[in-house]
Design brief:
InterPro entries: SAWADEE_dom (IPR032001), SHH1/2 (IPR039276). Pfam families: SAWADEE. This is SAWADEE domain-containing protein. GO terms for molecular function: chromatin binding. The chain starts with a strand and ends with a strand. The protein folds into 2 domains: about 1-30, no CATH class; about 40-110, SH3 type barrels (Roll). Strand 1 and strand 2 (about 15) form a beta hairpin. The protein is elongated. Strands 4-9-5-6-7-8 form a 6-stranded antiparallel beta sheet, with no helix packed on it. It has a 3-stranded antiparallel beta sheet with strand order 1-2-3, with no helix packed on it. Helices cover about 0% and strands about 45% of the residues. By secondary structure, it is mostly beta strands. Bound molecules: zinc ion.
Length: about 110
């Protein structure tokens, strides 16, 4: 459960997480710098072919109270014919931080630079 965030004296952002079933004394501050990279660029529809199976991407994990980009690996890609709205492909990804898996569209993905 995401509770709040703070910025440390060194300018790094941390989020406070509480695990279901534990009390406040179990709260844990997690440094998100490792999970969220500063430089990332959303994929253009025409760049969908650059997303590779096994490749590292950033994926927007949408939660009720917070959406955060996390490192994720592409497990499978279901290529679809692009239409007037652009990419319709489906990307089956697994987040590195919690090993959860999700099928997402290209707009939820970002390219990792550097
Ligand atoms: Zn596509």
């Amino acid at each position: 459960m995401f509770l709040s965030h703070r910025v440390t004296s060194s300018g790094e952002t941390e989020v406070c997480v509480r695990f279901v079933g534990f009390g406040a004394e179990e709260d844990e501050w997690v440094n998100v710098k490792k999970a969220v990279r500063g430089r990332s660029i959303p994929f253009e529809h025409s760049e969908c072919c650059k997303v590779m199976v096994g490749g590292l991407v950033l994926c927007l994990q949408e939660r009720r109270d917070q959406s955060i980009y996390y490192d994720a690996h592409v497990l499978e890609i279901e290529r679809k014919t692009h239409d007037i709205r652009g990419c319709r492909c489906l990307f089956f990804i697994r987040y590195d931080h919690d090993s959860s898996e999700e099928t997402v569209r290209l707009r939820r993905l970002c390219r990792v630079l550097g």
